[in-house]
Amino acid sequence: DNMWKAILQHQHTNNVSKYSNLTNIINTIRTLPNSNADPERMFSLLNNLKMKTRNSFSMVSVNAICV
After folding, report:
1. Which of 6, 10, 52, 61 would bridge 57 by S-S if both were Cys, CB 3.0 to 4.6 A apart?
2. Where is the HAT C-terminal dimerisation domain (predicted)?
3. CA angle, 26 as apex, 12 and 13 as ends, to 5°?
4. CA distance 19 to 10
5. How far apart are CA 66 and CA 22, in angstroms?
6. Using CA atoms, how far apart are residues 62 and 49, in angstroms rounded to an integer?
7. Per-residue confidence at 56, pLDDT binned at 50, 70, 90?
8. Where would I find the H helices in the chain?
């Protein structure tokens, strides 16, 4: 990581980054989630709504699960 930090700190003589496109790409990649925990939670919640006893849920229960 120190290598990338050093590379991204290189600048032209007029204080403009040499690798501005690379910086943008790296910052975009850093915003991507690195796990699938959030989607798994959503699938779990959806499965709870679609289980066999879903017809016995009251509207209050369904609203509580969805929120």
Report:
1. 61
2. 14-65
3. 5
4. 8
5. 40
6. 7
7. low
8. 2-8, 20-30, 37-49, 59-66
Inform me whether the pLDDT recorded for 14 exceeds 70.
yes
The residues pairing with 41 across neighbouring beta strands, listed in sequence order, are: none
* pLDDT tens digits along 36-55: 888 888 888 888 776 655 66
Report the amino acid identity of residue 10: H
Which residue's entry shows tokens 């879903």?
A: 54
Contacts of 22 (CB under 8 A, 6+ apart): 7, 8
Lookup: tokens for 13 = 């003589």
Longest distance between any two alpha carbons in the chain, whole Å: 71
Tokens standing for residue 33: 């989630």
pTM higher than 0.90: no
